[in-house]
Amino acid sequence: MKAVVSTFPRSHVAAAEAGAAGDNYLTHAHGIRSWLFTIDHKRIGVMYLVSILAAFLLGGIFAILVRTELLTPGPTIVSADNYNRFFTLHGAIMVFLVIIPGIPAALGNFVLPIMLGAKDLAFPRLNLFSYHLWVLGALLAVLAIVTGSVDTGWTFYVPYATTTGMGGVVPVLLGAFVLGFSSIFTGLNFIVTIHKLRPPGMTWFRLPLFLWALYATAVIQILATPVLGVTVLLLIVERVLGLGIFQPGLGGDPVLYQHFFWFYSHPAVYIMILPAMGIVSEIVSVFSRKHIFGYHFIAFSSIAIALFGFFVWGHHMFVSGQSNLVTTIFSLLTYSVSIPSAVKVFNWLATMHGGSISLRTPMLYTLAFIFIFGIGGLTGLFLGALAANVHLHDTYFVVAHFHYVMMGGTLIAMIAGIHYWWPKMTGRMYSERLGQLSFAAVFLGFNLTFFPQFIMGSHGMPRRYYNYPPQFEFLHQLSTVGSYLMTVGFVLIAVYLLHSLFAGRRAPANPWGGATLEWHCASPPPAHNFDEPPPAGDPYDFNDLEYDARIGGYVYGTRPVAADSEPT
Amino acid sequence: MSTSRPADSSAGAPAPHLQHHFTSPAQQFESVVLGMWLFLATEILLFGGLFCAYAVYRANHPEIFEYAHVYLSKSLGAVNTAILLVSSFTMASAVWAAQQSRARLLRIMLALTIACGLGFLGIKYVEYKHKWHEGLLWGKLYRPQHEAAPFSAHHAFEHGQTPPAAPTSAPGDTDVSWVFTPGDTGPRGLLAPGDTTPLVSPEPKVHNVQLFFGVYFALTGLHAVHVLAGLVLLGWTLWRAALGHFSAAYFTPVAMVGLYWHVVDLIWIYLFPLLYLIH
Amino acid sequence: MSPSEPTRPTAAHPVGHHVPLRVLAATLAALLVLTFITVAVTWFSWSDFGRAGNIWIALVIATLKAALVALYFMHLRYDRPFNAVVLISALLFVMLFCALTLMDARAYQPDIQAYRDVDPAHYAPDLQRP
Amino acid sequence: MPPAASTIAPHTDAVFYFIYTVSLFFFTLIVLLMAYFVFRYRRRVEGERGPGRTTHHTALELTWTAVPLVLVVLMFYSGFRGFMNLMNPPAGALDIRVLGQKWLWSFTYPNGHVDTELHVPVDTPVRLTLESNDVIHSFFIPAFRIKRDAVPGRYNRIWFQATRPGEYLALCAEYCGTQHSDMLARVVVHEPGLYEKWLAEAADPFRTRSLAEVGQLLVAKRCGGCHSVDGSANIGPTFKGIYEHSVTLADGSTVVADDNYIRESILEPRAKIVRGYEPVMPTFKGQLKDREITAIIEYIKALSDEATKPRSDEGTEQ
Ligand code: HEA
Ligand code: HEA
Ligand code: CUA
Ligand SMILES: [Cu+2]
C-alpha cells in the first residue's frame, strides 16, 4: 500500500476538541421519542447495543440453566422437556437476536458512517425500520416463550419441527423471518453507503478494514438471508397448512429442508465472524501503533471468506443421507474457507511484530480472540474431514467448536469493540483495572467451560442430551463451574461500564491513537458527525499522532515525518 | 402539464427533496436505485428457494409434473402473462411520463397498471377457485374429486388420452458410478439371501401428485402476495401523483415502484412456462 | 431493436435515464411475440425435444424475455453496470443453490424410491385416501 | 478418543490425530509468537513507537497462503479415504435393519427376528439399513466411530466390522424430542459362533419360556420406556391392574381393558386415547407378531392378578 502522509488540518482537530464540551448526538435532542424514532445512525446503534446486550443476558440466563441442569446426569433442576426448551431458546436467541445483528447493527451502525466520513447511512429511515423489525422479532420470540415455547433446537429440523406439540414454533419462525429482514436491510444500507457516500478521497483502498469486513458481511446478508426467509415461510406453511414439500408423510423430503436451512445458516456463521475479524484488524494495528500488515490480503480475504462461505453448507449434513458425491464436494470446499482465515491470523501476528504493544482492555480481548478463534477454527478442520466428522457430528465437540468461534470469537471481539469505541460512544472512560480483571474471569471461565467439551465430544458425548452416561459427569461439572466464572466476568463488565457512564473520566477525542476518521471527531460525536467531509488518508498511518499526557489522548502533532519512518 | 413544482430546479439552489446527508440529487437517486436493486436481488433469492424445490421435484419426478400440469389452464396462464407484460409496459411508460413531467399521462399509466394487476389477480382467483373445488390442493389438503377434468381438454386430446398415462419414471438415473461404487439399493435386509428382485409397486401409477400442487401454490401464492403488495404501492403512487408530487425534478418513488413491479413480472415470466407449459 | 437515444442526466433533468416510449413499445411487442411462441410450440409435436430439451428451451426463452424487461423496462442497459452485477450475482447464487441441491437430490433419490417401493401407500398420502 | 473396536476406528483416529498434530503445531506457533511479541514489543511509555515499519511482504504472505493450502488438501484427502471406506460395504456383509422411532431402536435380523439390542458376530462386516417411523434419529456407536441418520421416508446405510467382543453403547445423536437422551441401545459383539446361537434363541423365545414370561421380556424391552408395571404413571399409563378394569378415554367415554382393547391399543394406539395422556404411543403393527401380542396380554393379565392378591416378587426387572 502506498504510504499516504496525513494531511489532516489541525484546525479541524481543534474544532473537534471544542465540540466535546458542546452539543453532541446524545444531548442533541431529549425525551424517549427522540430516541425511539430517531434517524441518527449513532442513536440507532446505541439502541441496538442496549437491546442486543439485553437479549444476550436473556440468552445467557438460559445457558446458565442448561449448564446447571447438566451438573448431574439425570434430572437436576428441570424436566427433560424444559431442558429442550432451554437449549432451543438459548441457541435461537443467541444466534438470531445477539450474534448476527451484534457487531454490524450495533457497532457497525455507530461507526460505519463516521469511519467513512459521511453524515449518516444512505437510508436513515430504513435503518430505523430495521431496528424496529429487530424489536418486533424479539417480541415474537418472547411471545413464543409465552405460548408454550419451542423444543426443536435452533435448526428446526423437519419433521420434528412440523410435528412437535409445542405452541411456540410458529411465533419463533415468524420472529426469525422478521429478524432476517432486519438483517437484510442493515446489509443493504451498508452496501449502498459504502458505494455511494464515500467522500472524495476515500478510495476503496483507504477504507478501514472494519468497513471491508462489514461490506463482505453485507454481501452475505443480501444473498443468503432471503433463503432463510423462504425456508421459515415454507416451514410455517408446512406446519399450519401441511404443504408437503419437506414432510415425508406428505411425499416431501426432509433432507431438502436441511439444504434450505444450511444454505443460509452456514454463510450466516461468516456474517458472525467477519465483522469480528474487522474489529480485530483495527485494534491490533492501533494498539501495536503499527501499520496493519498486508492490508490488501486482509481486505480481499474478507471478500473471499464471504464468497467461499456460500459453497460449503453441506458440511452440516455429512451423515444425514446426503449423497456421497455431494458430500465429497462439500468437504473439499469447506477447506477453502480456512485459507483466507489463516491469512488473516498470520497478518495480525505480523502486525504485532515490531510494534509497540499496549495491553489495554480492548487489546487483551483481541489477543484472546486470536487465541480462542485459533482453537475454534482449527477444530473446524476436524469437522470438515469426512471420516472424523462421522464420529464427531452432533457431539459436544461441535458444541465446543461453535462456542469457540461464536462466543469466544465473535462475542469476545464484540466486547473488544465495545471497549474500544466506548469512549467514543459515551464520552467516558471506564476503569482499566476492572476491565483487565473481568477479562481474566471471562477468558479463564470461557476456556474452563468449553475446553472440556472437546474432550467429551471426542469421547462420544452427543449434544442436546438431558441425561448422559456417568463417565462424563466430571467434565460436565468442570464446564458448569467455568460458565459460572464467566458469568461473574460478564456481570463485572456490566457493572463497571454502567458505572463509567456516571463517574467515568471524560474521554478525549482520541484515547487510543487511532487514525481512522471516527477519532477525528469529538467524543461523543456531534449530531451530524462532520460539517464537511474530512480528508481521508491511510487509516493505519500513525506517524503524525502524538500522545498528549494533559488530555490523556492522542493529537496530530507537528513533528515532520522522518524520512526513515516512511512505510515501504 | 399541471405540476405544482417547477420542472426545473436549478443546480445551485438546494433541491427540495435532497436529504441532508447527500451532496447532490444525482448521488441520492443513484443510491436509491442501487438500494432498490439490492432489494430486488433479495426478492430473487427469496423465490430462488422455491425454484430450487421446483427443480428438485421436477427432476426427480417428471411424471408428476407431466400428469398434473394439465389441470392448469394454459390459456388463462397465457392471458395472465400477457396482462403482466402489458402492465410492465404501462409502468415503464409511467416512469417516462413522470420524467417528462406529463402528469396526466402519468396518472393514466399508473391507473392502467393497477387495472392490469387487478385483472391478473382476478384470473388467479378463478384458477384457484377451480382448484379448490376439484380438491387439487397441496399436501394435506389434496383430495382430488374423481370427476376432476383437466382444465385444458385440448391438451389431453393432443396426447390422445385422458388423463395422460403416467410414464414409469426412472428417478435417480444419474450415473455417478465413475466416482463411487454404487451401493445396492433397496431393503435387501428383508429379502431372502440371493433374491435381488427389486420390489416394484404393483400398478404403475403417478404417486404424490400433491407435490405438484404444493409447489404450484407455494410459487404462485408467494407471487400473488407480491402482486398484491405491488398494487398497494401503485395505489400509493397514484395517490401522490394525483396530488401532483411528481415531476421531472422528482420522480424517485415512481421509478422505484416501477422496478419492483417489473421484478414481479420477471418472476412470472419464469413461472408461466415452468408450471403451465410442461410438455 | 431500434437504437434508442436515452437522455443523459442534465441540469434540467438531474437524475435518471429517459427511455422513449417508442423503445418501450417495441420491447412490449417483442415480449408478446416471444410469449406467443412459447405457447405455440406446445401445440405441435415436432417441437418436442424430450424432457430435458423442452425445459431448457423454455428456460432460454424465459431468460430472453427477462433480459428484455431488465434491459429496457428497468433501464439496466443505461444504468450503472454495478446494478447489473447485483442482478446477475443474485441469479448466479440462485443457480448455485439449485445446482448443488439438485445434484444431491438426484443422487440420493434411489434411497427414497426403494423405500416407497416396499409400501407405495405408506408415504404417498394420495393413495391412502378412499 | 474412546476405545476403538471396529476396523474403521483406527482410520478415523488416524485422520483425527493427523489434523490434531497439524493444529497443535500451528496453535503453539501462534501462541508462542503472540506471547513473544507481547513481551518483546510491549509499550513502556504511552505514545512510544515500535521499531517495525513493514506494511506488507508479498512473498511471505503468499507462503502462508500456500502452506495451509497444501495441508488442508491432505486433511481432506485423509478424511475422504476413510469416508469412502465407510460408505461402501464389502460384499456379503450381514444385513441388519435398524428402525428408529421415538425413543427406541429396533433391529431386524435376516431371519426376521426383531430385537431392541444389536447383536453381531466379531470380525464380520455388518451392513445396517436405517429407517425411521417418525422423526429423524441418528444411529451412533462411538466405539465403532460410525454415525448415520435414520430419516423417515427413505433408507440410509452404513457398515462396520467389530474387532473386539464385548458390550458397547449405541446412542441417538439427532435430536428427536423428550427422551432423545435415553434412546440408547445395547450393542453386543459375540465371540465367533455365539452370535448364531444367540439369534436362534432370541428368535424363538417361546420354546423355553411361558407366555407371560415372554410377555414380560417384551414389555421390558419395548414398552418399559413409557409404561411402568408398578402402578406409577409415566408417559403412558401403568400396566398394573388395568386388565379387565374400566378405562376413561379422552372423550369421556369408558371402555373395559379387555384383550381386544389392549390389542387395539398396541396396533392402533390412536384409536382410543386414555384421558390425561398425550397420543404419542407409536404403533407396533408389523413389529410384534400375533403370538407376541398374546404374550404381552398374558403378562398384563398376570400383573393384574398380582395386584389383587399380594405377592412378594414384584414383576419389575432390570
Ligand atoms: C462464527 C461462527 C463459525 C465460524 C467462523 C466457523 C468456522 C468454521 N467451521 Fe463451523 N460451525 C459453526 C459456527 C462457525 N464455524 C456452528 C454454529 C456450527 C454448528 C451448527 C449446529 O449444528 O448447531 C458449526 C459446525 C461446523 C461443522 C459441522 C459439524 C457437524 O455438525 O457435523 C463443520 C464441518 O465442516 C464446521 C467447519 C468449520 C470450518 C472448517 C470453519 C473455518 O472457517 C475455520 C477457519 C479458521 C481456521 C482454520 C483457524 C485460523 C487459521 C490458523 C490458526 C492457521 C493454520 C491453518 C491451517 C493449517 C489451515 N463447522
Ligand atoms: C453466540 C452464540 C452463543 C453464545 C454466546 C453462547 C453462550 C453460552 N452457551 Fe451456547 N449455544 C449456542 C450459541 C451460543 N451460546 C447455540 C447456537 C447452541 C445450539 C443450540 C441447539 O442445540 O439448538 C448452544 C448450545 C449450548 C449448549 C449445548 C446444549 C446441548 O446441546 O444440550 C451449552 C451447554 O453447555 C451451551 C452453553 C453456553 C454457555 C455456558 C454460554 C455462556 O457463554 C453464556 C454466558 C453469558 C451470560 C451468563 C450472560 C451474562 C450477561 C450479562 C450479565 C449482561 C451482559 C452485559 C454486558 C457484557 C455489558 N450452549
Ligand atoms: Cu432419537 Cu434422538
Ligand atoms: Cu458451517
List keywords for this structure.
heterotetramer; A: 568 residues; mainly alpha; two-stranded antiparallel ribbon; 16 helices; 65% helix; disordered N terminus; disordered C terminus; B: 279 residues; Four Helix Bundle (Hemerythrin (Met), subunit A); 7 helices; 59% helix; binds heme-A; binds dinuclear copper ion; binds copper (II) ion
Concise summary:
Chain A is mainly alpha-helical and 568 residues long.
Mean pLDDT of chain A: 87
What's the alpha carbon Rg of chain A, rounded to whole Å?
Answer: 24 Å
**Which stretches of chain A are low in confidence, meaning pLDDT under 50 for 5 or more residues running?**
1-21, 559-568
What structural class do you assign from the helix and strand content of chain D?
alpha+beta
3D architecture notes:
The complex is a heterotetramer of chains A (568), B (279), C (130) and D (318). Chain A starts with 9 loop residues before the first helix and ends in a 12-residue tail after the last strand. Mean pLDDT of chain A is 87; it is low at 1-21 and 559-568. Chain A has helices at residues 10-21, 32-36, 41-69, 80-116, 124-146, 160-163, 169-196, 209-241, 254-288, 295-308, 324-352, 361-384, 386-392, 396-426, 432-458, 473-503, and strands spanning 545-548, 553-556. Helices cover 65% and strands 1% of the residues of chain A. Chain B has a domain at 25-136 and 207-276: Cytochrome c oxidase, subunit III, four-helix bundle (Four Helix Bundle (Hemerythrin (Met), subunit A), Up-down Bundle). Chain B starts with 24 loop residues before the first helix and ends with a helix. Chain B has helices spanning 25-60, 62-68, 74-99, 103-134, 153-159, 210-242, 252-276. Helices cover 59% and strands 0% of the residues of chain B. With 279 residues, chain B is mostly helical. In chain D, the strands form three sheets. Chain D has a five-stranded mixed β-sheet with strand order 3-2-1-5-8, with no helix packed on it. A five-stranded mixed β-sheet of chain D has the order 4-10-9-6-7. In chain D, strands 11-12 form a two-stranded antiparallel sheet. The longest helix of chain D is centred in the first third of the chain and has 33 residues, at 8-40. Classes of the chains: A mainly alpha (568), B mainly alpha (279), C mainly alpha (130), D alpha+beta (318). The interface between A and B is large, with 49 and 42 residues. Bound molecules: heme-A (2 copies), dinuclear copper ion and copper (II) ion.
